[in-house]
Amino acid sequence: MTLWLAQDAAADELLSTDPFALLMGMLLDQQVPLERAFGAPYQLRERLGGTLDVAAVAGYDTDTLVAVFSRPPALHRFPGAMAQRVQALARLILDRYDGDAGAVWRTAVSGKELVKRLQGLPGFGAQKAQIFVALLGKQLGVRPDGWREAAGPFGADGVYRSVADISDHASLDKVRTYKKEMKAAAKASGGRLA
Questions:
Q1: CA angle at 45 for the pair 44 and 51, rounded to the nearest 5°
Q2: Residue 110 phi, psi (nearest 5)
Q3: How much is the average pLDDT of 43-70?
Q4: Does residue 106 form part of some domain?
Q5: Predicted confidence (pLDDT) per residue in 79-122, tens digit
Q6: Which of 109, 157, 110 is nearest to 134 (CA)?
Q7: Which of 47, 60, 105, 112 lies closest to 86 in space, CA to CA?
Q8: Is residue 63 scored above 80 in pLDDT?
Q9: Residue ranges with strand state E in the chain
Q10: DSSP letter, residue 124
């Protein structure tokens, strides 16, 4: 299945076939539109000469990588911080998973273990880890035992809460409506959206 997150055919194909690109897109999915976050791995690959190799990103000169992220149009609202976070992700994958980003989920024996592994990645808190587990299970068929429970509310069928539920324009609209409602409810109660 080809994902529909960047809403650009080439970028979505990369997300669907390159586990590092998918992890990077999820990492960057904060404080920018999701199309921009999930399109950034493809743009970075193009800026790096057509490759998005984990070892190459891990070994890149950090200041040069920040400059690549910062070049207009910047790959993120916070290009310096996110370039460093992407490099930290690449280094962790290189060290812990021998450069194989897909091993993060392929070798997990349970949903609980997968969430724990994801939370060990730079930029992946509890909620982001659950959303990613839901994305893997719902759209890519990665379903270790207990994956729905591990994904929490994001693993439920028939909901439109996150990127895990986006597959076309209609589902994107439903997810955006849900998020607006949650923000309005949080604002009305004086709290913050989780």
A1: 150
A2: -150, 160
A3: 97
A4: no
A5: 999 999 999 999 999 999 999 999 999 999 999 999 999 999 99
A6: 157
A7: 60
A8: yes
A9: none
A10: -
**Alpha-carbon dihedral sign for residues 45, 22, 99, 71:** positive
User: Structure tokens of 24?
Assistant: 């990077």
Q: Rounded distance, CA 190 to CA 125, Å?
A: 23
pLDDT tens-digit readout, 162-191: 999 999 999 999 999 999 999 898 888 876
- pLDDT of 191 reads 64
Listing DSSP states for 27-54 in one string gives HH-SSS-HHHHHHHHHHHHHHTTS---H
**Are both 94 and 121 inside the same structural domain?**
no
- Give the list of residues 6+ apart from residue 24 with CB closer than 8 angstroms, or none: 40, 41, 44, 52, 86, 89
Q: Do residues 74 and 127 both lie within one domain?
A: no
For residue 118, give its domain range: 111-194
The pLDDT assigned to 192 comes to 58
